[in-house]
Fold:
Amino acid sequence: MILYPAIDIMGGKCVRLRQGDFAQATEYSADPAEQALEWERLGAEYIHVVDLDGARCGESRNDDIIRSVTASVSVPVQSGGGIRSMNDIERRMACDVSRVILGTAAVRDPELVRGAAREFGGGIAVGIDARNGVAAVEGWGSSGSVTVMELCARMRDAGVKVIIHTDIARDGMMTGPNLEASKAVVGLKWFDVIVSGGVASMDDLHGARGIGASGAIIGRALYNGAINLEEAVRVFGKGPRERC
Structure:
């Protein structure tokens, strides 16, 4: 199972939100690239980077910072936030990321996802951010009016191979991920599923591996020391890579 230390960028800094609420941001580092380098030093195999400013306003706002992150580490980086068009995807790819994450676009523009999956293959992932079983959009601020299962079926048809499943109510709350909901997505056997939202302990990581998740994104638990990345990589890392 691959562990993804999270770096969420807002105002040029590395922050963590609670339940996707931009008013509840905690700053952890003024230098996202330096933070990424530290995660790599501690054994990270992959880095997860989100442009929160882009997610909220609908266009990339931190390309230079994302580029500095990818330049600072030798491990691959996946990145989302503010990706709404093929041009946005190409711009993010130009930041030397290995995988671009589509969120709002997956709900609003399935044909974009289809075209991106056809062109970039495993370089495209879809983030399904759920609130009460319904996908959220626009930086989690609005309902996409489509259920998680309906969206999964659309993404299968579009050729998507990697899904990041997040329960917004758990994100940043240190209450554990919604493994039952993620298990339902894993059980479809259509995707490699990365669990996200609320991962707070080694037990949560055991749970994610137990349901068959291919990876887990860890945010606040790393920053506050609840999970030691070196130990977690030693126990869970070096697992099978996602399909591509």
Q: What stands out?
A: The radius of gyration is 16 Å. The longest helix spans residues 110-120. The chain has a mean pLDDT of 89. Residues 101 and 111 are 15 Å apart (CA to CA).
